[in-house]
Amino acid sequence: MNFSPEQIIALAPDAPSAKAGRSLATARKWFARGCDERAVWGECQGSGQEPYRTQIDLTEPAFGCTCPSRKFPCKHALGLFLLFAAEGQTFERPERPAWVAEWLEKRDQQSQRARK
User: Fold this and answer.
1) Is 11:61 a contact under the CB 8 Å cutoff?
2) CA distance 55 to 32
3) I need a surface site. Which of 52, 54, 95, 96 has the fewest CB within 10 A?
4) Are 91 and 34 in contact (CB under 8 A)?
5) Domain of 84?
6) Reduced to 3 states, what is the DSSP secondary structure of residue 1?
7) Closest Cα partner for 91 from 11, 25, 5?
8) How many CA atoms, within 13 angstroms, populate the side-chain half-sphere of residue 67?
9) Cβ neighbours of residue 41 under 8 Å, at least 6 residues apart?
């Protein structure tokens, strides 16, 4: 599934989140970026000691991030998604990290329970 920058910005909860997301849509803000056919993930150094881990399930899309923001999607998810839309070909395609695989597995389990 391909998303345009306009479609991604439309997912922002408010204008400040959209602006902050745009400011994070540069490769230098992210390390350990990766993707596969279903998900995009990356780590972004925030104000905390540990980097924020951000992941996107491209089938929905759905977002997850370890940042403390109460906005959804957060600026990190928007920034990563915008970067992927613009430069997806530069993302590595390694095996999913455990933290991404676990998040996707939880999503699948919740989806299965909801269908019952």
Assistant:
1) yes
2) 12
3) 95
4) yes
5) 5-115
6) coil
7) 25
8) 22
9) 32, 33, 34, 35, 53, 54, 55, 56, 80, 96, 97, 99, 100
What total of structural domains would you count in the chain?
1
Structure tokens at 97: 């990290």
**Which tens digit of pLDDT belongs to each residue from 30-79?**
988 999 999 999 999 888 789 999 999 999 999 999 999 999 999 999 99
Neighbours of 66 (CB within 10 A): 17
Query: Is residue 49 helix, strand or coil?
Result: coil
Tokens describing residue 46: 């925030």
Smallest CA-to-CA distance from 64 within 101, 89, 92, 114 is with: 101
Tokens of 3: 């998303």
CA–CA distance, 75 with 24 (Å, rounded to integer): 7
pLDDT tens digits, residue range 21-36? 999 999 999 988 999 9
